[in-house]
Specification:
Length: 262
């Protein structure tokens, strides 16, 4: 019987983190679920109790002690740490000229400094066969309007991951990136019905459906798994073709100009 794997997942209470936790739990993986609010994490623990054990850590990932607490919780609860999923984040960024130092620090701390520190703690405890998946964004691959500090931090995640792939690959630890496009999650709910938002995203995506948190979760699950055991230092866009094509829907081609709704 294969040994049980143990994963830390940040932002595990909703969206991509929750979808990933459910998928990993279904294969018996023990999970350290990290998130700001205890309620959703406890709900996850109860939901998957028949499949896998979940240790809950309700904490802000940007707090200095949180990465160490999460890594120690994995060892104390399950005796090992195999996988790390750096997923916690928020959207709604600003263009550079509208970004204050406070906004800049917020996005860099949440999307780059915190994942860096989680990686550092995880690497100290992982053995060969471990894997890290850092969640970036399609806006780290191509330029996007209003990306600002968000795009900068997510691009930094790609650079960090490629370094880790080279530095720790010889130890048997793989590092890859999942770069979601605009998915139907709580993080994007604020803009989902905005016509300008829809044109920029849906009219430029070849696939004729919206992406979901589960789509990203399946990509993360695959990159962690032994099926991806020779995949290292790669960026997998989960965006329906948005970053890799110059698609434009027929309705968009024939549409009238849209007044800027910002």
């Amino acid at each position: 019987m294969a040994e049980r794997r143990v994963a830390i997942i940040t932002g595990a209470g909703s969206g991509i983190g929750l979808a990933t936790a459910r998928l990993l739990a279904a294969q018996g993986c023990a999970i350290v679920a990290v998130g700001r609010s205890p309620g959703p994490l406890e709900a996850l623990r109860v939901e998957v109790a028949s499949q896998a054990e979940v240790a809950v850590l309700a904490a802000n990932v940007t707090d200095d002690e949180t990465p160490h607490r999460a890594a120690e919780l994995a060892i104390e609860s399950f005796g090992r740490l195999d996988w790390l999923v750096n997923n916690a984040g928020v959207g709604k960024p600003h263009p550079v000229d509208e970004t204050t130092d406070e906004i800049l620090d917020f996005f860099l701390n949440l999307h780059l400094r915190a994942p860096f520190r989680f990686c550092r703690e995880a690497l100290a405890r992982m053995a060969g066969g471990g894997a890290v998946v850092n969640v970036a964004s399609s806006f780290a691959i191509v330029g996007g309007l209003r990306g600002g500090a968000y795009s900068a931090a997510k691009a930094g995640i790609i650079g960090l991951s490629k370094h880790m792939a080279a530095q720790y690959g010889p130890r048997g630890i793989r590092t890859n990136v999942v770069a979601p496009g605009v998915l139907e999650t709580p993080m994007t709910a604020y803009a989902w019905d905005n016509e300008r938002f829809r044109r920029l995203n849906f009219d430029m995506t070849p696939l004729n459906r919206t992406g979901t948190a589960e789509d990203a979760g399946h990509a993360i699950q695959f990159l962690l798994s032994d099926s991806a055991r020779f995949i290292n230092g790669q960026v997998l866009a989960v965006d329906g073709g948005w970053t890799s094509t110059r698609f434009l829907s027929e309705s968009a081609i024939t549409a009238k100009a849209l007044v800027d709704e910002r």
